[in-house]
Amino acid sequence: MSTTPVIGVLALQGDVREHLIALATADAVARPVRRPEELAEVDGLVIPGGESTTISKLAELFGLMEPLRARVRAGLPVYGTCAGMIMLADKILDPRSGQETVGGIDMIVRRNAFGRQNESFEATVAVRGVAGDPVEGVFIRAPWVESVGAAVEVLAEHEGHIVAVRQGNALATSFHPELTGDHRLHGLFVDMVRAKDGAGSL
After folding, report:
1. Taking residues 159-187, what's their average pLDDT?
2. Any catalytic annotation for residue 60?
């Protein structure tokens, strides 16, 4: 791998284009990922916002769910936003029928916890590991984290609810940083991918 990491964006549903732009701005080579062979070629992966049940079903349909689980278990750096956070949860508090997750973060997530689409809002969020001013968080039918295991680092809370976490090479936020023009969280993730590469594959 070159010093510029290749980071995929799971392009089954959701705000894929915004993540591709944010990653490119954060000095990564960004590619959409729709097939297992495309997943095999990336050094990190973003799972975007959208509708977690739909993303889950499409991942199964495209033959991506098991390869995703295998690569995340093997240490692939992965960042999930909103629905992507739900996809990275080991457990969903209120799953839809047949809804599956990739897992990778020892947390229990509540879907649509902050309310419906018309209750979407923006708020400043201080995120550990992100220097400077708090980030502007866009919360759209956003989940929150009900509880985390001992290995999970809580990076941010909003009104007493956990909205950003990290466990090893996995990062997740309830909100959408790709919609604000502030790409510091994508920069943090690109740094995680570089650090993984620098440490070598264990």
Report:
1. 96
2. no
Q: Which stretches does DSSP call E strand in 22-158?
A: 29-33, 44-47, 78-81, 89-92, 105-110, 121-125, 135-139, 144-148, 153-158
Q: Is 82 a catalytic residue?
A: yes
Residues in the chain: 202
| Per-residue pLDDT at 165 | 98
Q: What is the token pair recorded at 199?
A: 């440490």
Q: Which of 18, 19, 82, 186 is catalytic?
A: 82
pLDDT tens per residue across span 72-100: 999 999 999 999 999 999 999 878 777 89
> Which one from 18, 19, 158, 178 is the annotated catalytic residue?
178
Q: Is the pTM of this model over 0.85?
A: yes
> Which residues 6+ apart lie within 8 Å of 90 measured at CB?
101, 103, 104, 105, 106, 107, 108
The residue from 18, 19, 158, 176 that is catalytic is 176
Long-range contacts of 119-128 (CB under 8 A, 24+ apart): 123/158, 125/156, 125/158, 125/163, 125/164, 125/175, 126/156, 127/155, 127/156, 127/164, 127/173, 127/185, 128/153, 128/154, 128/155, 128/156, 128/164
Q: How confident is the model at residue 202 (pLDDT cuts 50, 70, 90)?
A: very low
Kindly report the average pLDDT of the chain as a whole number. 93
